[in-house]
Prior knowledge:
- This protein is mainly α.
- It contains 13 helices and 2 strands.
- It has a two-stranded antiparallel sheet with strand order 1-2.
Amino acid sequence: MKExxxxxxxxxxxxxxxxxxxxxxIFGNMYAENSWNGVNYSWIGILVAIFVYPVIETLWxxxxxxxxxNAPTGFFDSILYIHVVGQFIGIVTLIDLTNRNPNDLIxxxxxxxxxxxxxxxxxxxxxxxxxxxxxxRLLGRIILWTVNYMHFETxxxxxxxxxxxxxxxxxxxxxxxxxxxxxxxxxxxxxISAWRIETKRTKSLWKHRVLLWTGIEIATxxxxxxxxxxxxxxxxxxxxxxxxxxxxxxxxIRHWGLNREKGERxxxxxxxxxxxxxxxxxxxxxxxxxxxxxxxxxxYQSLKSYDDAPTLPSGYFVCFLIALNPFMxxxxxxxxxxx
Length: 339
């Protein structure tokens, strides 16, 4: 396990790029009926994420810089807290847009853009639920609540981090599996795994977190239906579906095809790594996943690169486009699998 020598400390201002999508989401939802060159503002966020980000990612390339663990955390923590607020504003403006009864084309763009932003917010939640402070973990749960995926905390921390890259892990895809097969199988498997983990942890139904969180999510959906109407509920659920799909797509590419025997110590070769800058900064270093599994408590800004970790061909924004084509994904990735 060989750590990469840092080129320099990370330029903190680059992490502000993570707010581009929330800003585009909120702006697009608020002014969705307006257009630029025939493109409604509600579509700008999704078009930037799919077409602009991959180009910037490719041109900007890689960077192996990181911050020492004893670096001041105020700036980096503030990014997480602002994202929590941005997630709520994004959901609220989407609901407001739905109530304004725009045409289907406008609303479709808004749902797609907001769901991508919600997917990024789950990345923030992932960082927060790993924090030692209870109120920070609560913020992570609140984000997961907005996308109806609160059981993710239990499965990820108590399940995935223990079983990663083994056949027991529902979030690790074998090499034969496509992104689409993975999605329709991992979602129910992760819920079942989280339920079993909680059932073993407590015999009391009142302390069963997955049962409690499921009840909260059902009650939320009922409240949305009763007070805001059927259409808002459908939009709310579609946003959740899109966000969860993006989360599981990330799980797919960062563990695809990597194997670990049960009982074998977790090492850097059990997660895929990428140092492409744009994905690093927008997704707060999620692409340095091997180090996260080595030291889950390490704050995102201090996650390190490893020279001997399996490496993705690009960042997540490019890999997303590749993974949509299972044949292309496997053709590119199989030659990168560790022996």
